[in-house]
Amino acid sequence: MSLLTVVRDVCAVVGVVAPTSVFSGINSNRTMFEMLANANEMAQRIAGDLRDWTAMRTSVTFTGDGVTTAFNLPANYRRMLKTSHVWRSTDTMQPMRFFPDTDEWMQRRAAGEADAWGEWTIYGGQMYIFPAMGGDTTARFTYLDRNPVALASGGYGERFQADEDSFRLDERALKLGMIFNWKQQKGSPYAEDMGTYSDCMANLMGPDSPAPTILGNMPISSQARVAYPWPSSWGAS
């Protein structure tokens, strides 16, 4: 579904004239200017603020050279996933240790201290890894892509640029979000519309990254949840 189709559906609900183009004459069309801003805001909000959507996840691998400790983050980097680790190829059983406090990071560098499996932090648009990785060592992690728009011209972008661009996630969620956000900004009653949007988001979130249902005593991942009582044999005396 294109941006133009989404905007036309939104216009039909909020009571403004549906356009033949969002971008044509936009500088003199305040309604479409606001509608585009609404679409860009909701696309960013849905794609990056609410969940680590599987469609928006991507990964990168940094390769050491024995000297480099600062690596530029990818151009499409938005943020780490909420459960992300950085894995060094020399120790696949233990992720590197993260230091959120830059001052503590600096203190450890001044003291010459380092965990055996490596340490990392982020600041200034770079990921710092210490000790420096050798030439045959890599570090890899998964992060969230900052570009929620599939561009009609090819590739992805942060903002809609043409009528035929599309949202990388569910277009209905974008439409419902735009409706309640438009009404909220215009001072119209929006509680019911926000509820409809919230219901839609809740139904999308669950199946996007479901927790497996496990029966028996096989090893399970940290994301698994027990959904049934233990097998009767476990309780036998």
Strand residue percentage: 15-25%
For this structure, the quaternary state is single chain
Could you say which overall geometry the principal axes of the C-alpha atoms support?
elongated
What is the count of DSSP helices, taking H or I runs of 4+ residues? 5
The SSE string, one letter per element, is HHEEEEEHEEEEEEHH
Would you tell me the overall average pLDDT?
A: 90
Largest sheet: 4 strands, antiparallel
What is the rounded Rg? 23 Å
Summarize the entry for a quick read.
The chain has 237 residues and is α+β, with helices and mostly antiparallel strands.
Structural summary, described in words:
- By secondary structure, the chain is an alpha+beta fold.
- 32% of the residues lie in helices and 18% in strands.
- It folds into two domains: 3-52 and 148-208, no CATH class; 56-145, no CATH class.
- It has helices spanning 3-14, 30-49, 102-111, 171-185, 191-208, and strands at 57-63, 70-72, 77-80, 87-88, 97-98, 119-123, 126-130, 138-145, 149-150, 156-157, 166-167.
Produce the secondary structure layout.
Blueprint: H1 3-14, H2 30-49, E1 57-63, E2 70-72, E3 77-80, E4 87-88, E5 97-98, H3 102-111, E6 119-123, E7 126-130, E8 138-145, E9 149-150, E10 156-157, E11 166-167, H4 171-185, H5 191-208
Parallel strand pairs: 5-6
Antiparallel strand pairs: 1-8, 2-7, 3-8, 4-8, 6-7, 9-10, 9-11
Helix pairs in contact: 1-4, 2-4, 4-5
